[in-house]
Design a protein that fits this description.
Length: 147
């Protein structure tokens, strides 16, 4: 099957002989991987420490780590905000106290501060703003008092 795929892709068969480690001109200083059973405990510990350090250095990917953190914290924030402000716990079957909303006070305060910020109907907000302007203009006759 592999020969068929190589022929389809236009690759030639490898004509190089297999690598002979016995005839290698560049001999290794140490045998790799070392046989841990032959090493003393101190040598094993040093080897493991060195190997872990090298592995950590090789595994460092700052760009990937940065974006993973950004995505994780974004998801955590979204779930927390959704759970506190929008999720209906009254209908949730996993709620230990059915029919009770645990964040009701916080929701009322939050939506009281935001008001109609997220609504699509502007007629109610214009009427309220207009009524406020009329109240302010009736209370304060001088322009200096308004500012």
């Amino acid at each position: 099957m592999l020969r068929f795929l190589n022929r389809l892709l236009g690759r030639n068969q490898n004509t190089l002989p297999p690598f002979d480690f016995a005839r290698n001109r560049f001999l290794a200083k140490k045998k790799w991987p070392p046989n841990l059973r032959e090493l003393t405990e101190k040598q094993q510990f040093r080897f493991e420490r060195k190997f872990k350090r090298r592995h950590k250095l090789k595994a460092v990917r700052p760009q990937w780590d940065k974006w993973v953190k950004i995505v994780q914290w974004s998801m955590i924030s979204f779930i927390a905000v959704y759970g506190v402000l929008f999720h209906d716990f009254r209908k949730d079957p996993m709620n230990p106290k059915p029919g009770e909303q645990p964040f009701e006070g916080l929701r009322r305060r939050m939506w009281g501060l935001l008001g109609n910020f997220y609504t699509h109907t502007e007629s109610t907000t214009r009427v309220e703003r207009g009524a406020r302007r009329l109240e302010h203009s009736a209370d304060d006759q001088s322009p200096k008092a308004r500012s």
